[in-house]
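Annex B.
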Amino acid sequence: MLQLSSSLFNYLTDEHPDTFTTTHTVHTGGEPASPTHTRRLHERRPDLTIVNGYGPAESMGFTTTYTLDPAAPALPSVPIGGPLANKYAYVLDDHLRPVPPGTTGELYLAGHGIAHGYLTQPTTTATRFIPHPYGPPGTRLYRTGDQAHYDTHGNLHYTGRTDTQIKIRGFRIEPTEIETLLTTHPHLAQATVATHPDHHGIAQLTAYAVPAETGRPSPSEIRLWLRTLLPDHMVPAFVVLLDRLPLTANGKIDKRALPVPHAGPGTGGRAPRTALERTLCDAFTEALGLSSAVSIDDNFFDLGGHSLLAARLTNRLCSALNLSLTLRDVFRHPTPAQLAAHLDAWSARAATTPEPRRARPTLRRRTDQERITS
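Carrier domain-containing protein: predicted structure tokens.
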């Protein structure tokens, strides 16, 4: 059995479908499942059991699951199914009343595995872990903040969030934390954060910022600054500088009016000088889904790259160059020029390293030799 995040499941289905050759069951979750990828894998392995699960960290693993049927008609989204034994899932309205099937409400969880609260966070605990209106005295409901509805077959469908919390590659992120940090930059006056899918359908963070009068930092400088303060999954893939943030009639930031970022060569730098650099530039362009080629000075991560895309790049290069390349190599040498220099140095070391002397094989004595020495 394999248990994978949805992003990793999609990546392996696209790039390494042989991973599932000897597997009988795959559990996926952490993010909305991709109907395209589950269908693609079932076309290759109709006997494979694919289970889509749902369960935040507060529920200690999956609370609901849905087993996909390869013979069933295609659905626009993959359900998250029904609750497991001794676990409960309720879709309630603002007054904690159950809503009928097909009606969207907020998802609440109860039963075995539900946490007691957050360490040293009594206010958040009181907000999220509330008295259970339909359970025994003393039991609690966990308020997930997720929106969902039941269908007529008793399966839950996830439809989004009630707040601004988002998930990037399986990590929960509060955009306000990034927005607040951006406004502490001495040359930024305002900022907001939104998500957009890349060409592989993976959600990516985009930061929109209005420069202050004190200066105008470049997007790459802002991302470099954020990298020193945030974990990798919280660093926006793109930074877009605007003269002003669009507002709604009520004076709030209109995120629907924010321009969609488009990845493209960021430096207009040098063209490839060698066959290796040309191969690397082509691989960067393909992995990032760009319409025009990168230069040898373009940084993979400044163009929207992340760990999953880096894994795709590594896989492409290992096949094209017939060598062993690791993710660490891409993170340490993120431009085609740097990666080419690293590979050239590695090849030079390999060429000058003497081949270890092979051990002489042990020869078995013939029967007549054994007779003489016995």
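The mean pLDDT is 86. DSSP finds ten helices and 15 strands in the chain. Further annotation is deferred to the next reporting cycle.
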